[in-house]
């Protein structure tokens, strides 16, 4: 455990150094990068990926994966519009129900994975198609628009000068960090990922923990969906397509082992910021979008290679 | 070692007959599903069973079936490749560019296979020797190949392909060449996986790496080899993909990696590694083509297409899980 | 054995149920949107122009850019497809001709609203003078465009519109009802007044395609009432998928299918290829929106008789010219026309749109003269 912990810290140190280097390099490339306005705005743009990445860290720490988050985001967005406009519910109720629907989507993932022992990759690959299909089928390609002004506070507004969703992300970062780092539940999560059979024998409610985590994954994807609708002021059934790849990249970049058992929320946050800084900073320095994709791919591989080489002795 | 081998269907002769059938269960289920679908849709609209449509179903997804063969090997050995769609896009573009720029046709056919082998041998080395999880390496490769392709070609279409380059449009005994490729490659690899030493090695690595190592298998070298073979199949798939029409889009086909992985998995390749055959993945690719075609024949709104696919994956996997539990 | 039976049963049931639910929902579906339609007169008499006050937006505190060099970014729906390569070329041509514009094209690799928004957002931060866009979604893109206007940036759309007040002008390649009429008239000419046809489109969520299909349906009902509408299938912007979908349509309807409409520059050549490979040239007509280069082989072999499209190079060129005129202050609210370089005088319609012209029909006689 201590060896693990040390190697983890090592990855995060590498990442933090990398992040500082990248931020410094980008700041010299464009004087508009390191401004409060730009950084806050980037915070707004990364909030949805960030929210989902927090719970994805838990998922991957248990040795699982959730590919369906982008589709759940799309489905909640569509349901929000349908509940509000077609079923005539008050908007706050529609918002809550849509998020709960996201949670149910996650619960279904969890049930398939725990009850039927289907590997998470396959279970969520199937629901990735299923939930996206439901979003397309229910919406029949219709968009729902024209929300009341107050709704846009969530996605487009500020509270005390900081984008609303950044407050939500910040609060959840703390909650997730505390749960994973300091509670029994967090320890159970690590134990499940490190050695599932062992965890079962030592009396940890592995299935219950997984069920909770996948449900939470659905809930935050739902929350991200509502924020997304508020940010772009319309619903479309293709919302959130490919989100899972961004989320997984951020989490893995943050040092969470895809085999489970290792990873921290701080790492994920660092990975997230690094990715967003690269996207934004490279664009501001005149690199085109396709070039940025290449750089992110390279950074992902190199960061993990570096961390593996430096921490090999720690791994044992 | 024997523990890890017994999960492979190859060990079937030792079992009682019904168990032997059950060990190939996924293939039978898929075959049954394809037949059931054909009968139902054929009753609704007999044209579904017309020679043209059946040819189209078999030929249309042949490149996916070929790519799924390589993917199955990768998954059986306990790894995954999420960059295969991007790789096929890149290799198809390379092939097309060679063909229109006056290089010999055989080179345009061969180059993608060679490049596929080289690229994926690199990926395999990162996975095997540097111990980076395959999903991480290939996630990175996905971005690099996709962004790189657009940077270089800006997505300009490749047109004016020479007639004798379009191998996917050739026919032998009236049957389009992609069908031949699909059937022959599947049969060869299925036999090879079952009877060759290396085939057993792949199952052993996927079943239990440590046991394989103890049994004297050179795990790292075998892993690189598996990825390299996968690259060769991606190259063949790319040539079939590129020559299907008279233009090549020179971009990455959307969601192709998901389709290929889904075909392997629905075909019975266990994502945990160690079990599965390539016959299943080929049948699954055919089933997907049959479903896509039947949706049009049954007037099902394409809005629901993806739900049907998702449900189908779920049902096959659940059925497979139930079957495995029975076998135990 | 029980087990296998039950598995097969479950599989069959699952398939059956999901398909039935699909059928139930499929009843009234064509792929069009539900906005009001405005079909043109059958004989082509132009509808009387309805004067509409300017409904575009205005940049806040825009600096005086008259005659000064400006930096412009073009963010199309996606990069890496022939169509937007052509518009991008037109933009570059115009920028070169004007001499005082530095233009560049950048955008997402998939037609994705979220990524497009991020791209525009980044360019607002980096400080450009003008933004050209083709919207993936008219409403979703509006907030970020309004932000650009608020930052004093000149914003002009082309190809796919946003909400009017989120940009200054929109260069409209051809009116929706004009496209609808051109496509349906050409089809009627080839397959006769009682022919039946099917459509291959991108996705039902693509606003332009959905609009065209609605206008086609309205015009067909009004002017060619006996033509039969078989169905519409989705094929994204994917070559091979379009080909497979078109082939399946041919197999399904057999001799009943007389014509296929391709609604995208990808679907039309793929449909033509499907007809060619099925040996149905001359029996199944293909009409659609496409770029001439991709269609030349089929037109030359007489498999396709007419291709409808505006010139996308001209569209990009006009968009750049309009942006320059707007930045210079030469094009203001209330104008009725604008000078667009070599394209001459272009009309202002619908309050804040600039019309490129009538859609162009390419045929065997003239298609050789175009290279894009």
From TrEMBL, chain A:
<feature type="transmembrane region" description="Helical">
    <location>
        <begin position="91"/>
        <end position="113"/>
    </location>
</feature>
<keyword id="KW-1133">Transmembrane helix</keyword>
<dbReference type="Pfam" id="PF02653">
    <property type="entry name" value="BPD_transp_2"/>
</dbReference>
<feature type="transmembrane region" description="Helical">
    <location>
        <begin position="166"/>
        <end position="190"/>
    </location>
</feature>
<keyword id="KW-1003">Cell membrane</keyword>
<keyword id="KW-0812">Transmembrane</keyword>
<feature type="transmembrane region" description="Helical">
    <location>
        <begin position="250"/>
        <end position="275"/>
    </location>
</feature>
<feature type="transmembrane region" description="Helical">
    <location>
        <begin position="51"/>
        <end position="84"/>
    </location>
</feature>
<protein>
    <recommendedName>
        <fullName>Autoinducer 2 import system permease protein LsrD</fullName>
    </recommendedName>
</protein>
<comment type="function">
    <text>Part of the ABC transporter complex LsrABCD involved in autoinducer 2 (AI-2) import. Probably responsible for the translocation of the substrate across the membrane.</text>
</comment>
<feature type="transmembrane region" description="Helical">
    <location>
        <begin position="287"/>
        <end position="310"/>
    </location>
</feature>
<feature type="transmembrane region" description="Helical">
    <location>
        <begin position="211"/>
        <end position="230"/>
    </location>
</feature>
<keyword id="KW-0997">Cell inner membrane</keyword>
<keyword id="KW-0472">Membrane</keyword>
<keyword id="KW-0813">Transport</keyword>
<dbReference type="InterPro" id="IPR001851">
    <property type="entry name" value="ABC_transp_permease"/>
</dbReference>
<comment type="subunit">
    <text>The complex is composed of two ATP-binding proteins (LsrA), two transmembrane proteins (LsrC and LsrD) and a solute-binding protein (LsrB).</text>
</comment>
From TrEMBL, chain B:
<keyword id="KW-0997">Cell inner membrane</keyword>
<keyword id="KW-0813">Transport</keyword>
<feature type="transmembrane region" description="Helical">
    <location>
        <begin position="170"/>
        <end position="193"/>
    </location>
</feature>
<feature type="transmembrane region" description="Helical">
    <location>
        <begin position="56"/>
        <end position="75"/>
    </location>
</feature>
<dbReference type="InterPro" id="IPR001851">
    <property type="entry name" value="ABC_transp_permease"/>
</dbReference>
<feature type="transmembrane region" description="Helical">
    <location>
        <begin position="223"/>
        <end position="243"/>
    </location>
</feature>
<comment type="subunit">
    <text>The complex is composed of two ATP-binding proteins (LsrA), two transmembrane proteins (LsrC and LsrD) and a solute-binding protein (LsrB).</text>
</comment>
<keyword id="KW-1003">Cell membrane</keyword>
<feature type="transmembrane region" description="Helical">
    <location>
        <begin position="82"/>
        <end position="100"/>
    </location>
</feature>
<protein>
    <recommendedName>
        <fullName>Autoinducer 2 import system permease protein LsrC</fullName>
    </recommendedName>
</protein>
<keyword id="KW-1133">Transmembrane helix</keyword>
<feature type="transmembrane region" description="Helical">
    <location>
        <begin position="106"/>
        <end position="129"/>
    </location>
</feature>
<feature type="transmembrane region" description="Helical">
    <location>
        <begin position="21"/>
        <end position="44"/>
    </location>
</feature>
<feature type="transmembrane region" description="Helical">
    <location>
        <begin position="255"/>
        <end position="272"/>
    </location>
</feature>
<dbReference type="Pfam" id="PF02653">
    <property type="entry name" value="BPD_transp_2"/>
</dbReference>
<comment type="function">
    <text>Part of the ABC transporter complex LsrABCD involved in autoinducer 2 (AI-2) import. Probably responsible for the translocation of the substrate across the membrane.</text>
</comment>
<keyword id="KW-0472">Membrane</keyword>
<feature type="transmembrane region" description="Helical">
    <location>
        <begin position="279"/>
        <end position="297"/>
    </location>
</feature>
<feature type="transmembrane region" description="Helical">
    <location>
        <begin position="136"/>
        <end position="158"/>
    </location>
</feature>
<keyword id="KW-0812">Transmembrane</keyword>
């Amino acid at each position: 455990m201590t060896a693990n912990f040390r190697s983890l810290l090592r990855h995060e140190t590498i990442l933090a150094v990398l992040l500082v280097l990248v931020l410094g390099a980008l700041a010299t490339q464009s004087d508009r990068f390191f401004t409060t306005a730009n950084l806050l705005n980037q915070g707004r743009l990364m909030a949805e990926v960030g929210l989902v990445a927090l719970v994805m860290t838990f998922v991957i720490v248990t040795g699982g994966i959730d590919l369906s988050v982008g589709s759940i985001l799309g489905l909640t967005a569509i349901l929000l519009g349908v509940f509000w406009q077609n079923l005539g519910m008050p908007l706050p109720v529609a918002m809550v129900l849509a998020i709960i629907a996201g949670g149910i989507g996650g619960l279904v993932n969890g049930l398939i994975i725990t009850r039927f022992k289907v590997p998470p990759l396959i279970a969520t690959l199937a629901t990735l198609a299923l939930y996206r299909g439901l979003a397309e089928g229910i919406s029949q390609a219709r968009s729902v628009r024209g929300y009341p002004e107050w709704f846009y506070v969530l996605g487009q507004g500020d509270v005390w000068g900081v984008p609303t969703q950044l407050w939500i992300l910040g609060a959840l970062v703390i909650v997730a960090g505390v749960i994973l780092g300091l509670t029994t539940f967090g320890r159970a999560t690590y134990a499940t990922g490190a050695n599932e059979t062992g965890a079962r024998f030592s009396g940890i409610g592995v299935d219950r923990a997984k069920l909770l985590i996948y449900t939470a994954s659905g809930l935050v994807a739902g929350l991200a969906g509502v924020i997304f609708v508020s940010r772009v002021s319309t619903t479309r059934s293709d919302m959130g397509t490919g989100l899972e790849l961004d989320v997984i990249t951020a989490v893995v970049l943050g040092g969470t082992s895809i085999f489970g058992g290792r990873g921290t929320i701080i790492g994920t946050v660092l990975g997230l910021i690094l990715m967003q800084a690269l996207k934004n900073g490279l664009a501001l320095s005149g690199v085109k979008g396709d070039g940025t994709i290449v750089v992110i791919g390279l950074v992902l591989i190199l960061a993990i290679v570096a961390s593996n080489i430096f921490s090999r002795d720690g791994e044992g | 070692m024997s523990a890890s081998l017994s999960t492979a269907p190859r060990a079937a002769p030792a079992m009682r007959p019904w168990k032997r059938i059950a060990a190939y269960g996924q293939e039978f289920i898929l075959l049954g599903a394809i037949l059931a679908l054909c009968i139902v849709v054929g009753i609704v609209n007999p044209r579904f069973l017309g020679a043209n449509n059946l040819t189209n179903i078999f030929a249309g997804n042949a490149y996916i079936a070929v790519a799924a063969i390589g993917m199955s090997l990768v998954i059986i050995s306990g790894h995954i490749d999420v960059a295969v769609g991007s790789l096929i896009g890149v290799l198809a573009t390379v092939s097309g560019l060679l063909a229109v720029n006056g290089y010999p046709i055989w080179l345009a056919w061969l180059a993608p296979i060679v490049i596929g082998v080289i690229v994926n041998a690199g990926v395999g080395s990162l996975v095997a020797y540097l111990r980076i999880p395959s999903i991480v390496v290939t996630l990175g490769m996905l971005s690099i190949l996709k962004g790189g392709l657009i940077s270089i070609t800006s997505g300009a279409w490749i047109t004016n392909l020479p007639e004798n380059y379009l191998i996917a449009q050739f026919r032998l005994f009236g049957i389009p060449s992609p069908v031949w490729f699909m059937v022959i490659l599947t049969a060869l690899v299925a036999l090879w996986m079952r009877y060759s030493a290396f085939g057993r090695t792949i199952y052993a690595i996927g079943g239990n790496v440590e046991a394989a190592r103890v049994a004297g298998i050179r795990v790292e070298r075998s892993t690189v080899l598996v990825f390299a073979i996968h690259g060769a199949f991606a190259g063949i798939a790319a040539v079939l993909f590129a020559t299907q029409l008279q233009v090549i889009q020179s971009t990455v086909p959307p969601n192709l990696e998901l389709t290929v992985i889904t075909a392997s998995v629905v075909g019975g390749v266990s994502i945990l590694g160690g079990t599965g055959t390539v016959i299943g993945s080929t049948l699954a690719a055919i089933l997907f083509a049959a479903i896509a075609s039947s949706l049009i024949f049954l007037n099902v709104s394409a809005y629901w297409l993806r739900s049907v696919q998702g449900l189908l994956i779920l049902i096959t996997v659940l059925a497979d899980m139930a079957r495995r539990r029975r076998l135990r | 054995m029980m087990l296998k039976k039950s598995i097969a049963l479950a599989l069959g049931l699952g398939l059956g149920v999901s398909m039935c639910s699909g059928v139930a929902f499929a009843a009234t579906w064509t792929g069009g949107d539900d906005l009001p339609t405005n079909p043109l007169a059958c004989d082509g008499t132009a509808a009387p122009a309805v004067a509409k006050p300017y409904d575009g937006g205005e940049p806040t505190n825009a600096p005086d850019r008259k005659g000064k060099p400006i930096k412009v970014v073009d963010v199309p729906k996606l990069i890496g497809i022939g169509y937007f390569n052509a518009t991008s070329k037109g933009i570059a041509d115009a920028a070169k001709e004007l001499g005082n514009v530095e233009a560049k094209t950048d955008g997402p690799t998939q037609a994705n609203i979220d990524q497009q928004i991020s791209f525009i957002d980044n360019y607002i931060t980096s400080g450009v003078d003008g933004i050209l866009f083709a919207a993936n979604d008219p409403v979703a893109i509006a907030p970020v465009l309004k932000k650009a206007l608020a930052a004093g940036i000149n914003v002009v759309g082309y190809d796919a519109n946003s909400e009017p007040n989120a940009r200054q002008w929109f260069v409209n390649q051809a009116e929706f009802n004009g496209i609808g009429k051109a496509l349906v008239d050409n089809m009627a000419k080839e397959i006769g007044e009682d022919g039946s046809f099917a459509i291959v489109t991108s996705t039902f969520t693509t606003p332009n395609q959905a609009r065209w299909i609605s206008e086609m349906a309205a015009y067909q009902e009004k002017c060619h009432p006996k033509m039969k509408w078989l169905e519409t299938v989705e094929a994204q912007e994917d070559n091979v998928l379009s080909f497979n979908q078109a082939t399946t349509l041919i197999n399904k309807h057999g001799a009943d299918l007389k014509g296929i409409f391709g609604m995208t520059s990808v679907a039309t050549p793929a449909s033509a290829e499907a007809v060619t490979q099925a040996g149905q040239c001359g029996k199944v007509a293909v009409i659609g929106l496409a770029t001439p280069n991709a269609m030349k082989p089929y037109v030359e072999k007489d498999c396709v008789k007419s291709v409808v499209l505006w010139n996308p190079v001209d569209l990009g060129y006009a968009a750049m010219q309009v942006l320059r005129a707007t930045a210079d202050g030469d094009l203001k609210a209330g104008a009725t026309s604008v000078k667009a370089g070599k394209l001459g005088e272009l009309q202002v319609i619908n309050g804040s749109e600039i019309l490129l012209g009538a859609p162009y029909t390419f045929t065997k006689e003239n298609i050789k003269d175009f290279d894009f």
